[in-house]
Specification:
Length: about 450
């Protein structure tokens, strides 16, 4: 199979290069996988007409219970007609790319590298289908979410499942107050966050980390979108294809955020992360090891569902910014969607699945079972923002945001994250200056851009 002029071997090489960095927002790796649905790891709705099957894959591991309930409703069955839904969770991008390269992808997918797949011709433009839909209503979806579904005039997929606000500082107020910190007013600048980090970081006599304040590179803050947003930099211009990763403010951010790891001790920090249960995307927060985390709106609900004894102390406020930007309130949003693959056998069925994610039945089920929100305006007016501790901040944040970012817009976003992860470690281990790392990140990004023929 040839994907947009790229050979099967090249496509799989790209997949191997980006594997491990493409499990996106609301991943919740700390959640235990749900019970296996049907044989082969696929859930299925009630039997229907032979041959009319919709295959849907997603890389989340905690969506399965919601999908099982959705697929069992009469409303869903009526909407899908005679189609049988087969869904598979925890299907990582590497397995997806293998299926694409073999010409046997599922019909629809979610929580993958949307722009990357779209620009490579692996997924189709759904704009005509969206225009003809009586269910999908652009004016009832938050502008940032709707706009994130478009790239270079084409529509990447049907927005849904979870599309809301990405950035906030969440704090375990019980842990903060135990160290004499005033948890009624959370840190707003990196300097303030560092003071809290120091107060909540403890080691044993051997120097091992017992607990710490903040990993500034955990969860959604792992991506260059966040550091750039915090420091007021637009690191990629999708209209011109130009990068600004070597910006001195990016270097400043690498040095400042690196100081959190230096204080904890790079080796001690790495050792802590290797302990089972202390992983990223909320695991160490749930374990009571990390007591602050930069996360999206999904964090309050997921934490309540997974670890209510921790969630009861969760409080959220604005993500940190440098002191000279203390009056700036940053926020990001972006796409999760049902994307439809070019070689899908049932494109219409996959689109109908995307449509159903706009309905109150699907929205309510996902909110209850997983804690996620899709930005449908009429439905947002009905939810209880106090259901999950800390959620109200995200629901109320919109009018107070002064700088918005629509995230993950670069076609080589996963490549850049990989290089960013490597180079920032060189900085906090004092093996490379922050500016040298930013310069090198710029060089590597420009090289990959050209190598993929995107220039």
């Amino acid at each position: 199979m040839n994907n947009n002029g790229i050979s099967r071997r090249q496509f799989l090489q790209w997949g191997a290069m980006t594997a491990g960095v493409v499990t996106l927002a609301a991943c919740a790796p700390s959640a235990a996988p749900s019970a296996a649905p049907a044989a082969g790891g696929e859930g299925a709705a009630a039997p229907a007409a032979a041959g009319n099957v919709v295959q849907y894959w997603y890389s989340w591991g905690n969506l399965d219970p919601a999908m099982e309930k959705i697929a069992a409703t009469d409303e869903f069955k009526q909407h899908m007609g005679d189609a049988t839904l087969e869904f598979k969770g925890s299907a990582n991008q590497d397995s997806l790319l293998t299926a694409i390269a073999a010409g046997t992808p599922p019909d629809g997918g979610s929580n993958y590298s949307y722009v990357n797949l779209f620009t490579r011709g692996a997924t189709i433009d759904v704009k005509d289908m969206a225009d003809a839909s009586t269910v999908l209503k652009a004016d009832d979806i938050l502008d940032g979410v709707w706009n994130s579904a478009f790239y270079k005039g084409g529509m990447i997929g049907v927005p849904g499942i979870e599309c809301f606000n990405w950035w906030g500082l969440n704090v375990n107020t019980n842990a903060a107050e135990a160290e004499g910190l005033d948890a009624t007013t959370l840190p707003k600048t990196w300097d303030e966050a560092m003071e809290w980090h120091k107060a909540m970081t403890k080691k044993d006599d051997a120097g091992n980390l017992l607990q710490f304040g903040l990993d500034p590179y955990d969860a959604i803050a792992n991506e260059p979108d966040f550091l750039a947003g915090s420091y007021g930099v637009k690191w990629f211009d999708e209209e011109t294809g130009k990068f600004d990763l070597a910006n001195p403010r990016m270097a400043e951010g690498l040095d400042t955020l690196g100081e959190f790891i230096r204080y904890a001790g790079p080796d001690q920090f790495a050792g802590m992360r290797q302990v089972e249960g202390n992983g990223t995307w909320g695991a160490s927060y749930n374990a009571g090891i990390q007591n602050m985390i930069i996360e999206g709106y999904w964090h309050p609900g997921e934490t309540q569902i997974q670890k209510p004894e921790v969630a009861q102390y969760n409080r959220a406020s604005w993500a940190p910014v440098p002191a000279d930007r203390k009056d700036v309130n940053i926020m990001a949003t972006g796409l999760h969607a049902v994307i439809i693959f070019k070689d899908a056998k049932n494109k219409e069925g996959a689109f109908k699945l995307g449509e159903f994610f706009q309905t109150p039945t699907a929205l309510n089920t996902i909110f209850e079972e997983v804690g996620w929100i899709h930005g449908v305006k009429s439905w947002l007016q009905t939810i209880d923002k106090n259901k999950y501790p800390g959620l109200a901040f995200y629901v109320d944040a919109g009018p107070e945001v002064t700088e918005w970012t629509i995230g993950r817009r670069c076609p080589i976003n996963d490549f850049v994250i990989t290089q960013y992860t490597e180079l920032r470690e060189q900085v906090y281990r004092d093996l490379m200056s922050a500016q040298a790392a930013a310069d090198e990140l710029q060089k590597r990004a420009e090289g990959e851009w050209q190598a993929q023929g995107l220039g």
